[in-house]
Amino acid sequence: MTEVRQTLSLPASDAHEIVPGVRPLTAEETGHLDRARTHLRASGVDLADARAVGALLHTMRSRWAVGPAAGVPQATVMALGVGVGDLIVHRVPGARWALRTKGPAPTPTVVSASGTDAALPLADVAARWQTGCGPEWVAEYVAAAAAHLAADAGHEVPSPRRPSPNAFRTPADLPFPPSPAAQDIALGVLDQVLEAALTPGRAAVPFAVVDGGPAQDPAVRSFDGEADARAWVRGSGAARAAVAWFGQLPTAGSAEPAVLVEASDAGAPSLVVAHRYVAATAGDDGRARAVGGPLVLGQAAPLL
């Protein structure tokens, strides 16, 4: 994920203003992305499921790496990048594809509604094809990119790459401050998932919590994948909900384990929070250790 500041603005007329560095896609370029989507759909994978796309990327790259020497399958890598970008677009209100003209070669990019930030999924997927990645990378990347792009242009947003106490925000600083109830469920669930991460033997699986649903069922439900948790939340009819998962946050050229939670009231932009931790070592009595405090990553589309 790459920051692009002051790139594309969104006037009141909703006509995209052309500014240096980024421009709207032409019809031909849009068609090029559509052909990449057709190529990706041929895999039969659910392209709305970030974990399924991640598993596809991991499988295809692994087969290429261990097979006979061959050049990078550029069409496949581009198709996967477009699939990852579409996942981000679908999670962030107002996000859209554009063309970044700065750099050695023009490349499609996903820009935020305000135009102040961008992610470069094609370039990032191409880099992962070279270095390799686990099956969870796409889901983690999409979550971090969505939180990054959902911020309003008028707010200085700390990127998930470089959190620091000096840049820390509270939920009240967000463009659409969540209700006290949504904040409570977000931070309460964050405490629960962090405790699970720090407890030896606890399963590191996504789970979801709903509040105010028709069945008034307060039970926490675990799921095999984050997409299943989100689907259950969307169909719950609840007043608010939270989804928690285990992932990583980029930092200083590497990545650290983290627990992440997204919570929202029905129809309201979600609050995305996280807490880093480090794995247990021989001197830690078999327990992992929390790092710092909770991080407010940003906002995304409503969960329900």
Give me the strand/helix succession.
EHHHEEEHHHEEHEEEE
Strand order of the largest sheet: 6-5-7-8-9-10
Main sheet makeup: 6 strands, antiparallel
Shape: globular
Overall radius of gyration: 19 Å
User: What is the domain tally?
Assistant: 2
Count of extended strands? 10
How far apart are the termini? 26 Å
The total of helices stands at 7
Beta strand %: 15-25%
Oligomeric state of shown chains:
single chain
Classification by helices and strands: alpha+beta
Mean pLDDT: 79
Q: In which range does the helix fraction lie?
A: 25-40%
Low-confidence stretches: 1-19, 152-167
SSE layout and pairings?
Blueprint: E1 22-23, H1 27-41, H2 50-66, H3 74-91, E2 96-100, E3 107-111, E4 118-119, H4 121-131, H5 137-149, H6 180-198, E5 207-211, E6 221-222, H7 226-234, E7 240-251, E8 254-265, E9 270-278, E10 289-300
Helix pairs in contact: 1-3, 2-5, 3-4, 3-5
Question: Can you walk me through this structure?
Answer:
This protein folds into two domains: 22-149, no CATH class; 165-300, no CATH class. Mean pLDDT is 79; it is low at 1-19 and 152-167. With 304 residues, the protein is of the alpha+beta class. It has helices at residues 27-41, 50-66, 74-91, 121-131, 137-149, 180-198, 226-234; strands at residues 22-23, 96-100, 107-111, 118-119, 207-211, 221-222, 240-251, 254-265, 270-278, 289-300. A hairpin with a 6-residue loop joins strand 2 (96-100) and strand 3. It is built from seven helices and ten strands. The strands form two sheets. It has a six-stranded antiparallel sheet. The protein has a four-stranded antiparallel sheet with strand order 1-2-3-4.
